[in-house]
Amino acid sequence: MATLGIPQNTIAVLQKYNFNFQKKYGQNFLIDTRVLEKIISAAGIAKEDFVLEIGPGIGTMTQYLCEHAGRVAAVEIDRNLIPILEDTLSAYDNVQIIQQDILKMDINHLVQEKNQGKPIKVVANLPYYITTPIIMGLFENHVPIDSITIMVQREVAERIQVGPGTKEYGALSLAVQFYANPEIVAHVPPNCFMPRPKVGSAVIRLTRHREAPVQVKDERQMFALIRASFNQRRKTLVNGLNNAPDIAHSKEEIVLALEKMGLSANVRGETLSLEQFARLSDLLS
Ligand code: SAM
């Protein structure tokens, strides 16, 4: 099977199978070999790796993964793509195609069964509407992972990477940075996809921390505080937390904890670093 990264070959496959793009699945297929090579090298894929690819489409990146990795599991929701994948990947015996919704899959079980629980690499050109649940699901469920290298909306990539005091800083930046080191490795314009998306994209690599960058007694409580304080960005942290239904602490307790941290009662959540949210959580627990 010819390399699909070349537009003519992608068009030939789509015509052969009379394939109709499904908007609801965010289908924008890559048609640029340089971008594909960049993703493989940024992910550092090697023969000893087990790679989980989310949303293989017609198998464009999967072909590259099969060439470089030891084994590949490709999880695709769209039933119509399965016969196409069986065709475009027929030359490879190190790939397993799984028809399933990744959000409903027990990935820990897959890693146990296929890689004896050893850390895997995740590579994906994601449908944008499920970027956050996928990333957070992998981290919060403690799936053994080395790195996640993913194509996301450019804006989301920037939001993940920034620190306190910027407009984009939010719960997603803090959550990702707690678990991993994020690095944007490429900016990808709309003309690298078929059909062209309306927005620019970026490839971001999230390398899992070996040790958490901050220590916190109750991870769940810290993330509840983070979510509550960014839900009401315009309010002070004290009012934001006080209005949140899942935070049980009184205004006085929160003000006292902030005082112990040397912070004013008028501080806004978006100015706090990950370390400060961890400290606040410990003081309140
Ligand atoms: N990897 C291919 C490429 O780069 O050309 C396709 C990328 S396309 C942006 C996203 C793919 O994810 C589509 O094939 C789509 O059908 C699939 N997809 C969407 N939602 C999914 C889900 N919940 N679980 C698994 N795959 C999904």
Average pLDDT reading: 94
What is the H/E order? HEHEHEHEHEHEHHEEEHHHH
Hetero ligands: S-adenosylmethionine
Task: Return residue spans where pLDDT drops below 50 for at least 5 consecutive residues.
Answer: none
The major sheet is characterized as:
7 strands, mixed
Distance between the termini: 58 Å
Shape: elongated
How is this structure best described in words?
40% of the residues lie in helices and 18% in strands. It contains twelve helices and nine strands. The chain has helices at 7-16, 33-43, 60-68, 82-88, 107-115, 131-140, 154-161, 171-179, 219-231, 237-243, 251-260, 274-284, and strands spanning 29-30, 50-54, 71-76, 95-99, 120-125, 145-153, 180-188, 193-194, 201-208. Strands 4-3-2-5-6-9-7 form a seven-stranded mixed β-sheet, with helices on both faces. A two-stranded antiparallel sheet has the order 1-8. Strand 5, helix 6 (131-140) and strand 6 (145-153) form a beta-alpha-beta unit. Bound molecules: S-adenosylmethionine. S-adenosylmethionine binds at residues 25-30, 54-57, 60-61, 75-78, 81, 101-103, 125, 127, 130.
In short:
40% of the residues lie in helices and 18% in strands. The protein has 285 residues and is of the alpha/beta class. The longest helix has 13 residues, at 219-231.
Descriptive tags:
7-stranded mixed beta sheet; elongated; alpha/beta; 285 residues; binds S-adenosylmethionine; 18% strand
SSE topology:
Layout: H1 7-16, E1 29-30, H2 33-43, E2 50-54, H3 60-68, E3 71-76, H4 82-88, E4 95-99, H5 107-115, E5 120-125, H6 131-140, E6 145-153, H7 154-161, H8 171-179, E7 180-188, E8 193-194, E9 201-208, H9 219-231, H10 237-243, H11 251-260, H12 274-284
Helix pairs in contact: 6-8, 9-10, 9-12
